[in-house]
C-alpha cells in the first residue's frame, strides 16, 4: 500500500473537510458498556472476566456538592474490546505484545468486511472458511496486507440469552476455522480480525485443532483481535478506515475501547443542504 | 381456634403508612440472656449452679443461696395460667395501638411464676407451653401458647407480632440460579406467601431449573444482580415498597485459601457477592422495609441471610470464602441494629456444607436445599434471629461456644473436601 | 423468723404531730422540690417552728431525680444531723415513722420532719413506669406496658378466682371511699360514685375498670416526729405510736400475691399495742387498687383469708359507718400523689386520732391502724408495714 497523495497536510485537510461535510462518515462500532452486557463464560473453576460495574462517587450531593462521577470496574475483555497478542499463550513472547507497547500506528488501518450474515442466519455455528474468503476476494479483490478484517454476522443484533446462545454443550455462535485464520494471518498478513460475537472465535471454537484458532494464530503472529463489535452492517466491504485504540494499560492484554470507522458516504453528495 | 387472618386488602394510597412503634427494649444485662436464647427459639432461664434454683426474673445473684454462678439452661416449658388480664389502656404507644392485649401470670412447673404474653387460644386457668420469642424491639419475651396445637394458631395477632410468618407476605429471593432458590420458592409457596419475587442475574445465561422455578404459583422472575448497584437500585425502585421478606440467597464460593490461590480474583468475587451484595441490597431495600414494619398484615417483617457457618470459624480449605462469610456475618449485626427501629427481624441461617457443586467431593452430612428452605420458613414462623441448619452447623456452633480457639485449631485439621 | 430473742422496745416518749397536706392537682408543672417545700412549710408553720429547728429530715419521692434527700437539704436550707431517704413508695409513711421515732427516742435527732411529695407532669407517669425497677423493666413492663393496672389486674383476677370475690365486692370499697372523699375538700374526685357507675365503667385491664384505678396527681404530705415533752410544751395535738411492723419480700414462694407481709407479723402488731382488731376505730389501708385493701383487711386480722368479700358486704366502710376505712377518700378518690400516697393514710390517721380531721372526722376516733404497701418490683408489692397509733398515751 502506498500513499499517492503528494502532500500529507493537504490529505488531512481534505479529510477534515470531508468529515465536516459528511462526505466521510464516522460509524461507531461500539456497544455501550452496560453491567448486563454478556461476557465470555468459562467453566466456573476458572477465573472469570469481570462484568462492567459502576459505583457513584458523588452526584451533586453531600458526597461532592457540585460534581458527579463514578468508579467503574471491569475486565480487560469486557464489552467491545481489543485483544493484544499477550492475551493468548501463543503470543506470550511476541515483541510489543501488550496494549501499552503496541505502537499507536498499529491501531488504524483499512478494513475489509466479510459479510457472513446470511450464513450465520441459517447456521448459528457458521464457519468462516478459506472458501468464504476466496469468494469474497473474487468479488472485492485480494485482502490488502495490513488490513483489519471484520466478520459480519449481524450477531450484534441479538439480545439476551440469544447472544451467547449458551447450551449444555457450550455457546453456539459463528467464527473462523483454523484454516481461514492461517490464510488471513500467514498469507494475507492482516493487521487484526474482529467479530460481532463475544470472542474472535466461534462459540464452539474450543473443539478445533488448535482450540480457539483465531486467538491462537492472530496473537501468535502479533496481530490483534476485536470483539463485541456493533454496526458492521453500516460498513462497506472495502474502502473504510478503522480506528481501534485501546487504553494504555501497563502489561495489559486488552481493553474496552471505542471502535470507530471512517466510511465514504457515497449516497450523500449534498449533506450540507439538509 | 384462632380466626384465620384474611388476605390483606390493597393499600389505601391516601393513608399514611403507620410508623413502627416499639415495645420497651430496655433491659438489664442479665435479662439479655433471655434475648440470646430467644434468638434461637430456646426457652432458657438462669439456674443456680450451686443450689439448682430456677431464677426469674433474670438476676445477678441466686435468690435462694446468693451464688452468682447462674448459667442459662433450657427449661421445661410447661406451666399453668393462674391469672390473666386484658390490657386495654397502656402507657406504651406500641401496645396502645394493639390493644386489647392479653397477658397473664404463669406458674412454671420448673418453679417460678412469670408474667407473659398469652395466646388467644389458651383457656382461663389452662395448661400452657412457654415459648421464648423476640418481640418487635428484638428483645426476648415469654409467650404462653396452648399446651396442644390449635387451629390457625400462628394467626393469633399477638403471636404474629413476634414472628415473621410468610403467610400473605411478599417475598424476594435473590439469585434464581442457585439451587436453593427453587427449594426456597417452593417452601414459601407452601407457606402461603402471596408473591414470590425471584431475582435473576445475567438472564443471558441459561440455568437448569428456570422453567420449574417460573412455574411455581406466585413466582415472578425479575432481573437482579447483587454485584451491580444499578440493578439492585432498579429492582428496589420497582418492588422495594412491597418486599415484606427479603431472602439474601446469593453466594459466590470457590475452594481455597490464600497461598494456593495466589491472587485476589475469586476473593474479590466472594466479597462482591457475599459481602458487598448484602450491603447493596440493604442500601436499596432496607430503607423501605424499615419504614413498613407496621404496614398491616403484610408489613415488612424480616430480612434473611443465608450464610456459611464458617463465618464463625475459618475453614482453611475454604479459607477465602470463610473470610467473606465472616465479613457478611459482621455486616448482618450492623444491619440488625439498623433495622431494629423498624421492627424488621434480621434472621441469619447458617449452614455447613450444602448439597451443591462446590461441596460435591465432600462426604455427608450435607444440607439439602429443601432442608435449608424448610429451616428458613420455620425460622420466620418462629421469629428467630439465628438458625443453624444441619449437623455440621450445629456441631460447629456448639464447639465455637465451648472454645473458639480450640475450634480454630480443629478447623485446620478439617478437610473442606472442596479443595 | 420465729423466736425473736428480745422484746421490742416501745415508742414511749415519741409523738407524731403537725400533719400537713398540700391540696393535690391532677397535673402540675411544678417539681417534687416545690411540692415537698410546701408540705414542709405547712407542717412547720402548724407547729410554730422554723426550718432551723428541724434537725432530722426524712424524704420520700419518685420524681426528685437527680436529687435525693441530700440535695434537698441544700435546696431547702436545712442543716439536719439525721437524714433519710425512703424509696418504699406506698410503705414510705409508716417506714418514715418507724425510723424517725427511733432516732428521736435515741436522741440522734430532736425534731424529724417527714415529708413525701411528687409532681405529676404530663408525661411523668409513663416515664416513671418504664424505669420503675429493674425487674419491672425486664419482666413486666415489656408485657403490655399496663403498669400497675395490669399487675393488679392479675392479682385481682387471681383473687376473684380463688375466693369468689365479685366486682361488686371491690365496688363497695370504692363507692364508700368516694362517699368519704365528698367530705374532704381537698379530694380530686368531687362527684358521687354509685355502684352502677362503678360497674358500668370502662375496662382498663380486665377485671380492673376505671374506678378501680387511682388517678396520678401532684401533691405532698408531711408530719413531724418529736419528743412528747416538746410537743406538749408547744401545745401541739399529738398522736402516740403503739406498735409497728414491717416486712419486705414476704412469702416469695407464693406463686402470685395472695397476702402481704402483714400476715407474717400481725400478731406482733397487736401484741405490742396490747390491742385487738376490735379496738381499732378506723383503718387506713394502702389502696391503689381495692383488692389490696381487701387483702389488708384480711392480713391485719379483721377477717380470715378469703373472707374479705363477705367482710365488706357486712360492713359500712364510710366515715359514719361501723368500719370507717380510708376516711379522706384514700388514693382512689383523693388521688395518688406518687410517694405521698404512702403518707396519705398516716397523715389522715394523725388528724383523726388527734381530733383534727374536720369534715372527715370519725366520732370518738381514738385508735387507728395504718398500713402501707409499696413497690411492685415485678409481679407483687414487696414492702408492707403497719402502725397502730392513738390519740392518748396507752
TrEMBL record, chain A:
Family matches, as SUPFAM superfamilies: Putative cyclase
Pfam families hit by this protein: Cyclase (PF04199)
Protein name, as recorded: Cyclase family protein
Top-level division of the source organism's lineage: Bacteria
GO BP term, pick one: L-tryptophan catabolic process to kynurenine
Gene3D superfamilies the record matches: Putative cyclase (3.50.30.50)
GO MF terms held by the record: arylformamidase activity
Automatic annotation (TrEMBL), chain B:
Family matches, as SUPFAM superfamilies: NAD(P)-binding Rossmann-fold domains (SSF51735), Nucleic acid-binding proteins (SSF50249)
Ranges for region Disordered: 1-25
InterPro entries: ChsH2_C, ChsH2_Znr, NA-bd_OB-fold, NAD(P)-bd_dom_sf, SDR_fam, Thioester_dehydratase-like
Organism of derivation: Nitratireductor pacificus pht-3B
Chain ranges of the ChsH2 rubredoxin-like zinc ribbon domain: 36-67
PANTHER family linked: BLR3430 PROTEIN (PTHR34075:SF5)
The ChsH2 C-terminal OB-fold domain, residue ranges: 72-131
Pfam families xrefs: adh_short (PF00106), OB_ChsH2_C (PF01796), zf-ChsH2 (PF12172)
UniProt xrefs under Gene3D superfamilies: 6.10.30.10, NAD(P)-binding Rossmann-like Domain (3.40.50.720)
Protein name: Short-chain dehydrogenase/reductase SDR
Automatic annotation (TrEMBL), chain C:
GO molecular function, one term: acetyl-CoA C-acyltransferase activity
Full protein name: Nonspecific lipid-transfer protein
InterPro entries: Thiolase, Thiolase-like, Thiolase_C_2
UniProt xrefs under SUPFAM superfamilies: Thiolase-like
Domain of life of the organism encoding this protein: Bacteria
CDD domains: SCP-x_thiolase (cd00829)
Residue ranges annotated for the Thiolase C-terminal domain, each copy included: 268-376
Amino acid at each position: 500500500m502506498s500513499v499517492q497523495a503528494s502532500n500529507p497536510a493537504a490529505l488531512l485537510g481534505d479529510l477534515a473537510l470531508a468529515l465536516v461535510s459528511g462526505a466521510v462518515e464516522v460509524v461507531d462500532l461500539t456497544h455501550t458498556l452496560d453491567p448486563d452486557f454478556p461476557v465470555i463464560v468459562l467453566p466456573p473453576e476458572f477465573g472469570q472476566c469481570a462484568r462492567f460495574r459502576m459505583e457513584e462517587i458523588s452526584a451533586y450531593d453531600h458526597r461532592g456538592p457540585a460534581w458527579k462521577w463514578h468508579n467503574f470496574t471491569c475486565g480487560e475483555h469486557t464489552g467491545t474490546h481489543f485483544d493484544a497478542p499477550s492475551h493468548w499463550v501463543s503470543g506470550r513472547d511476541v515483541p510489543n505484545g501488550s496494549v501499552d507497547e503496541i505502537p499507536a500506528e498499529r491501531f488504524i488501518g483499512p478494513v475489509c468486511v466479510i459479510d457472513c450474515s446470511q450464513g450465520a442466519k441459517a447456521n448459528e455455528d457458521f464457519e468462516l472458511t478459506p472458501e468464504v474468503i476466496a469468494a469474497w476476494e473474487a468479488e472485492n479483490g485480494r485482502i490488502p496486507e495490513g488490513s483489519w478484517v471484520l466478520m459480519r454476522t449481524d450477531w450484534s443484533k441479538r439480545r439476551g440469552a440469544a447472544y451467547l446462545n449458551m447450551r449444555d454443550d457450550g455457546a453456539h455462535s459463528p467464527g473462523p476455522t483454523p484454516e481461514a485464520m492461517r490464510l488471513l494471518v500467514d498469507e494475507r498478513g492482516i493487521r487484526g480480525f474482529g467479530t460481532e460475537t463475544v470472542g474472535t472465535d466461534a462459540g464452539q471454537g474450543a473443539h478445533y485443532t488448535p482450540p480457539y484458532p483465531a486467538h491462537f494464530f492472530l496473537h501468535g503472529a502479533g496481530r490483534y483481535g476485536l470483539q463485541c463489535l456493533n454496526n458492521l452492517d453500516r460498513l462497506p466491504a472495502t474502502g473504510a478506515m478503522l480506528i481501534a485504540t485501546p487504553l494504555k494499560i501497563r502489561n495489559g492484554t486488552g481493553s474496552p475501547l471505542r471502535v470507530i470507522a471512517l466510511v465514504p458516504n457515497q449516497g450523500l453528495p449534498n449533506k450540507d443542504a439538509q | 381456634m384462632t380466626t384465620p387472618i384474611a388476605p390483606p386488602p390493597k393499600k389505601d394510597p391516601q393513608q399514611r403508612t403507620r410508623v413502627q412503634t416499639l415495645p420497651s427494649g430496655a433491659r438489664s444485662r442479665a435479662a439479655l440472656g433471655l434475648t440470646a436464647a430467644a434468638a434461637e427459639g430456646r426457652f432458657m432461664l438462669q439456674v443456680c449452679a450451686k443450689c439448682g434454683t430456677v431464677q426469674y426474673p433474670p438476676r445477678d445473684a441466686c435468690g435462694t443461696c446468693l451464688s452468682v454462678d447462674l448459667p442459662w439452661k433450657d427449661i421445661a416449658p410447661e406451666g399453668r395460667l393462674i391469672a390473666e388480664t386484658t390490657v386495654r389502656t397502656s402507657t406504651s404507644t406500641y401496645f396502645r395501638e394493639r390493644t386489647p392485649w392479653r397477658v397473664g401470670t404463669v406458674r412454671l412447673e420448673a418453679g417460678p411464676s412469670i408474667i407473659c404474653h398469652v395466646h388467644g387460644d389458651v383457656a382461663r386457668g389452662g395448661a400452657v407451653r412457654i415459648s421464648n420469642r423476640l418481640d418487635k424491639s428484638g428483645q426476648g419475651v415469654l409467650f404462653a401458647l396452648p399446651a396442644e396445637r390449635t387451629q390457625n394458631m400462628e394467626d393469633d395477632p399477638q403471636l404474629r407480632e413476634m414472628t415473621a410468618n410468610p403467610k400473605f407476605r411478599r417475598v424476594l429471593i435473590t439469585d434464581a440460579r442457585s439451587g436453593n432458590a427453587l427449594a426456597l420458592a417452593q417452601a414459601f409457596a407452601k407457606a402461603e406467601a402471596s408473591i414470590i419475587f425471584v431475582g435473576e442475574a445475567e438472564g443471558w445465561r441459561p440455568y437448569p431449573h428456570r422453567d420449574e422455578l417460573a412455574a411455581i404459583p406466585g413466582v415472578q422472575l425479575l432481573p437482579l444482580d447483587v454485584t451491580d448497584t444499578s440493578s439492585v437500585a432498579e429492582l428496589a425502585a420497582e418492588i422495594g415498597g412491597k418486599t415484606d421478606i427479603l431472602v439474601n440467597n446469593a453466594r459466590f464460593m470457590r475452594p481455597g485459601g490464600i497461598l494456593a490461590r495466589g491472587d485476589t480474583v475469586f476473593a474479590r468475587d466472594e466479597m462482591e457477592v457475599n459481602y458487598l451484595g448484602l450491603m447493596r441490597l440493604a442500601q436499596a431495600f432496607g430503607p423501605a422495609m424499615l419504614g413498613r414494619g407496621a404496614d398491616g398484615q403484610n408489613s415488612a417483617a424480616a430480612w434473611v441471610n443465608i450464610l456459611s457457618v464458617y463465618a464463625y470459624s475459618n475453614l482453611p480449605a475454604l479459607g477465602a470464602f470463610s473470610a467473606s462469610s465472616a465479613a457478611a456475618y459482621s455486616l448482618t449485626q450492623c444491619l440488625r441494629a439498623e433495622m431494629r427501629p423498624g421492627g424488621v427481624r434480621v434472621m441469619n441461617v447458617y449452614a455447613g456444607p450444602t448439597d451443591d457443586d462446590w461441596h460435591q467431593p465432600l462426604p455427608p452430612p450435607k444440607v439439602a436445599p429443601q432442608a435449608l428452605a424448610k429451616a428458613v420458613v420455620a425460622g420466620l414462623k418462629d421469629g428467630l434471629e439465628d438458625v443453624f441448619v444441619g449437623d455440621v452447623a450445629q456441631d460447629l456452633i456448639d464447639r465455637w461456644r465451648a472454645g473458639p480457639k480450640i475450634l480454630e485449631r480443629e478447623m485446620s485439621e478439617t478437610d473442606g473436601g472442596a479443595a | 423468723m420465729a423466736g425473736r430473742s428480745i422484746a421490742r422496745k416501745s415508742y414511749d416518749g415519741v409523738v407524731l404531730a403537725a400533719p400537713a397536706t398540700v391540696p393535690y392537682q391532677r397535673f402540675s408543672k411544678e417539681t417534687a422540690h416545690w411540692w415537698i417545700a410546701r408540705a414542709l412549710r405547712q407542717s412547720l408553720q402548724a407547729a410554730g417552728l422554723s426550718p432551723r429547728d428541724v434537725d432530722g429530715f426524712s424524704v420520700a419521692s419518685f420524681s426528685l431525680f437527680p436529687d435525693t434527700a441530700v440535695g434537698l437539704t441544700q435546696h431547702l436550707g436545712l442543716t439536719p444531723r439525721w437524714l433519710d431517704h425512703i424509696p418504699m413508695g406506698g410503705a414510705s409513711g409508716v417506714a418514715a415513722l418507724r425510723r424517725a421515732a427511733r432516732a428521736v427516742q435515741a436522741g440522734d435527732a430532736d425534731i424529724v420532719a417527714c415529708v413525701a411529695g411528687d409532681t405529676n407532669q404530663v408525661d411523668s407517669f409513663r416515664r416513671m413506669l418504664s424505669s420503675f425497677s429493674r425487674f419491672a423493666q425486664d419482666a413486666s413492663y415489656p408485657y403490655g406496658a399496663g403498669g400497675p393496672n395490669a399487675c393488679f389486674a392479675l392479682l385481682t383476677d387471681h383473687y376473684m378466682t380463688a375466693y369468689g370475690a365479685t366486682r361488686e365486692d371491690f365496688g363497695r370499697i370504692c363507692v364508700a371511699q368516694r362517699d368519704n372523699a365528698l367530705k374532704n375538700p381537698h379530694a380530686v374526685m368531687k362527684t358521687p360514685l354509685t355502684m352502677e357507675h362503678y360497674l358500668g365503667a370502662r375496662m382498663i385491664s380486665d377485671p380492673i375498670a376505671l374506678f378501680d384505678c387511682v388517678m396520678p396527681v401532684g401533691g405532698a404530705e408531711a408530719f413531724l416526729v418529736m419528743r412528747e415533752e416538746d410537743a406538749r410544751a408547744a401545745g401541739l395535738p399529738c398522736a402516740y405510736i403503739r406498735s409497728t411492723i414491717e416486712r419486705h419480700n414476704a412469702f416469695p414462694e407464693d406463686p402470685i400475691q395472695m397476702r402481704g407481709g402483714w400476715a407474717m407479723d400481725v400478731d406482733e402488731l397487736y401484741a405490742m399495742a396490747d390491742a385487738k382488731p376490735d379496738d381499732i376505730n378506723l383503718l387506713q389501708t394502702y389502696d391503689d387498687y381495692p383488692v389490696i385493701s381487701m387483702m389488708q383487711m384480711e392480713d391485719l386480722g379483721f377477717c380470715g383469708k378469703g373472707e374479705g368479700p363477705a367482710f365488706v358486704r357486712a360492713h359500712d366502710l364510710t366515715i359514719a359507718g361501723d368500719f370507717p376505712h380510708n376516711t379522706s377518700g384514700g388514693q382512689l378518690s383523693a388521688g395518688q400523689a406518687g410517694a405521698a400516697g404512702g403518707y396519705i393514710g398516716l397523715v389522715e390517721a394523725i388528724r383523726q386520732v388527734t381530733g383534727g380531721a374536720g369534715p372527715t372526722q370519725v366520732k370518738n376516733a381514738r385508735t387507728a391502724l395504718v398500713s402501707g404497701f409499696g413497690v411492685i418490683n415485678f409481679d407483687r408489692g414487696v414492702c408492707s408495714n403497719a402502725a397502730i397509733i392513738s390519740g392518748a398515751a396507752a
